[in-house]
């Protein structure tokens, strides 16, 4: 085949995701690196994981735990996940049939969507929304139905959700604590969701990767806490977020046995199995150092408060942050004529702090002058960033 013929064959491919390019997270991190900016855009810590966890990883790797793990995850880790779920939510799980370890939460979300969504199905999600949901729905042949949440509280109007449900609705995707807004579902939110899911014979995908980062003495609620909802849910969590090791790409999905069996049919052909020594390392961490999970909310609340205090003299307006490790800020008093994307470019290049524009989390974009900052950073990093931001 000639070079021209090969090029023509490549050009004839029809993209399944024609509107999708490089994610904003990669774009802003690259821009931050190229301009030597403090990177508060992408959601990863700039501090090390716990030394005992890293020692566990080295020990298991050196002991030869480096080959394929069982497809659903090593049993000792699944047993510790079951124990963690019982401690946090008083839900008893079958480690063998209801828990699957995945290569990050994003894989779990993708597999859950492929499992539940058939061509023509509608999936309700809430904007601003994590950017992996809609492409996965599109690849499954489904249609995303976007419901906008409004600043500053970003609360769900459940009457609006009820009105959006049609005969084609199959799934509702929720995310609490919510990225990017930091909103956390109340008891009333979970009950309203449970009622709609059961009333309309729907399924729920509950993205709970920030589940242990809940602030201000709020109770830690989950789809696990509502039996009828849990019976129709795939609940997704992330060890990368919980243990400050996002690069390990280790998450898990919990679902009733019948759903888990279908979930694993797809999971086995996506990654089959996940990072083996890390599974053993985290299992030991969960067993021997449960305080690493128990204290996570307090750990990040302190960082939220340090960052907020450092920004107190700035012209940014800080929006409420009930959970996650993200802070939304309104920059209207600084550059009201700049779109959020233009503002983030200007902020990174001219003032050496990288942020994420909120509009990328919306299907139709947003005119709000709001950006997302990540405070999963050392206090020195937060103070250095705040010093620059207070000069605007």
Descriptive overview:
42% of the residues lie in helices and 14% in strands. The chain contains 16 helices and 13 strands. α3 crosses α12. The longest helix has 15 residues.
Largest sheet, strands/sense/barrel? 7 strands, mixed
CA radius of gyration is: 21 Å
Structural class: alpha/beta
Low-confidence stretches: none
Q: Helical proportion?
A: 40-55%
N-to-C SSE string, H for helix and E for strand: HHEHHEHEHEHEHEHEHEHHHHEEHEEEH
Beta-strand content: 5-15%
Euclidean distance between termini CA atoms: 58 Å
Strand order of the largest sheet: 2-8-7-6-5-3-4
Task: Please report the total strand number as a whole number.
Answer: 13
| pLDDT averaged over residues | 96
Number of helices, counting only DSSP H or I runs of 4 residues or more: 16
Oligomer: single chain
Shape: globular
Task: Write a brief caption for the model.
The protein has 16 helices and 13 strands. With 392 residues, the protein is of the alpha/beta class.
Tags for this entry?
single chain; alpha/beta; seven-stranded mixed sheet; globular
SSE inventory with pairings:
Blueprint: H1 3-11, H2 24-34, E1 38-39, H3 51-62, H4 75-89, E2 99-102, H5 105-116, E3 122-127, H6 133-139, E4 143-148, H7 158-164, E5 169-175, H8 187-199, E6 203-207, H9 227-230, E7 233-238, H10 239-242, E8 251-254, H11 257-270, H12 276-288, H13 291-294, H14 296-310, E9 317-318, E10 326-330, H15 340-351, E11 353-354, E12 356-357, E13 370-374, H16 379-389
Helix pairs in contact: 3-12, 4-12, 5-6, 5-11, 14-16
């Amino acid at each position: 085949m000639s070079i021209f013929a090969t090029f023509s064959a490549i050009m004839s491919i029809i993209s399944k995701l024609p509107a999708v390019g490089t994610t904003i997270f990669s774009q802003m991190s690259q821009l931050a690196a190229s301009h030597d900016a403090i990177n508060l855009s992408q959601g990863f810590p700039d501090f090390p994981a716990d030394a005992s966890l890293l020692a566990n990883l080295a020990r298991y790797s050196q002991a030869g735990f480096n080959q394929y793990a069982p497809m659903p995850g090593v049993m000792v880790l699944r047993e510790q996940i079951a124990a963690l779920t019982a401690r946090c939510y008083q839900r008893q799980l079958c480690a063998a049939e209801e828990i699957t370890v995945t290569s990050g939460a994003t894989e779990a979300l993708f597999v859950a969507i492929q499992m539940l969504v058939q061509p023509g199905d509608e999936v309700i999600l809430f904007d601003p929304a994590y950017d992996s949901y809609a492409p996965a729905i599109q690849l499954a042949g489904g249609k995303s139905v976007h419901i906008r949440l409004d600043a500053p509280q970003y609360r769900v109007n459940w009457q609006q959700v009820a009105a959006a449900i049609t005969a084609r609705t199959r799934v509702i995707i929720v995310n609490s604590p919510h990225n990017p807004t930091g909103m956390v579902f109340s008891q009333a939110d979970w009950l309203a969701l449970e009622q709609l899911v059961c009333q309309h014979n729907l399924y729920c995908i509950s993205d709970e990767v920030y589940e242990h980062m809940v602030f201000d003495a709020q109770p830690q609620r989950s789809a696990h806490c509502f039996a009828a909802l849990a019976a129709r849910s795939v609940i997704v969590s992330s060890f990368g977020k919980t243990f400050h090791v996002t690069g390990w790409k280790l998450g898990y999905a919990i679902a009733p046995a019948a759903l888990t069996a279908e979930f694993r049919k797809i999971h086995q052909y996506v990654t089959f199995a996940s990072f083996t020594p890390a599974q053993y390392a985290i299992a030991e961490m969960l067993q021997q150092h449960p305080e690493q999970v128990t204290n996570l909310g307090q750990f990040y609340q302190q960082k939220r408060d340090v960052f907020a205090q450092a920004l107190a003299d700035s012209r940014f307006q800080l929006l409420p942050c009930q959970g996650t490790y993200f802070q939304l800020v309104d920059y209207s008093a600084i550059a009201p004529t700049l779109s959020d994307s233009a503002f983030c470019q200007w902020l990174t290049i001219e003032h050496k702090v990288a942020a994420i524009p909120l509009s990328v989390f919306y299907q139709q974009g947003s005119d709000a002058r709001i950006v997302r900052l990540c405070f999963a950073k050392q206090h020195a990093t937060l103070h250095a960033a705040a010093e620059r931001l207070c000069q605007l």
